[in-house]
Amino acid sequence: xxxxxxxDTQANTPASSILIRAAxxxxxxxxxxxxxxxxxxxxxxxxxxxxxxxxxxxxxxxDITNVHLVAVSAxxxxxxxxxxxxxxxxxxxxxxxxARGLGITIASGWQGQGIxxxxxxxxxxxADNWAGVLxxxxxxxxxxxxxxxxxxxxxxxxxxxxxxxxxxxxxxxDALAMSRLHPNPxxxxxx
Length: 191
Ligand SMILES: CC(C)(COP(=O)(O)OP(=O)(O)OC[C@H]1O[C@@H](n2cnc3c(N)ncnc32)[C@H](O)[C@@H]1OP(=O)(O)O)[C@@H](O)C(=O)NCCC(=O)NCCS
Prior knowledge:
- This protein is an alpha+beta fold.
- It contains 4 helices and 7 strands; from the N terminus they run E-H-H-E-E-E-H-E-H-E-E.
- A 7-stranded mixed sheet has the order 1-2-3-4-5-7-6.
- The longest helix has 17 residues.
- The structure holds coenzyme A.
């Protein structure tokens, strides 16, 4: 891995030529294409057969209160965005200012190679050490074993089953609510 650019030197397992960096507005179309691609959209709430342009405006906007990262395969032929992950504000409420939602997607040909781990570690370092996010929450289809394994490896716990959560290929599928609380929240010095 050509190291994560934006912060610390914590362990980041070297692997192939995958670079993890901040998403830029110029990545919007590639991220949108990834989100809508077969083998990825089914596990999320994205729709099939949607125009790439339908998500471009959203991904072109930079939100400095959140992190949005991409995993890039860099070869002599150029760059390919093979994964994306980010946090998003759940409610526009000061009382939920400590919480963020998490989304993550890896392109189907690149799944199962540890890229999800790399993106998750980078997102969590940003959240824990730089943004002071105290609670991260997500929903995941209850039969998405790979995603659940990834989340549990990174400290998420199951909070409950959301029945008939979303329509997936003609069937209402259950989802798990999962969350991770900051393992070691920063504290203020004594006055
Ligand atoms: C779910 C997803 C993000 C995981 O990322 P990934 O890069 O494929 O996963 P990783 O290679 O980092 O592996 C994650 C863990 O799952 C394990 N795993 C892999 N395949 C698995 C399977 N079929 N069942 C259970 N665990 C599996 C891996 O061994 C690894 O665990 P480890 O810590 O013991 O090594 C990715 O597969 C994806 O984007 N899928 C489609 C979209 C999606 O479902 N997004 C999640 C929406 S909530």
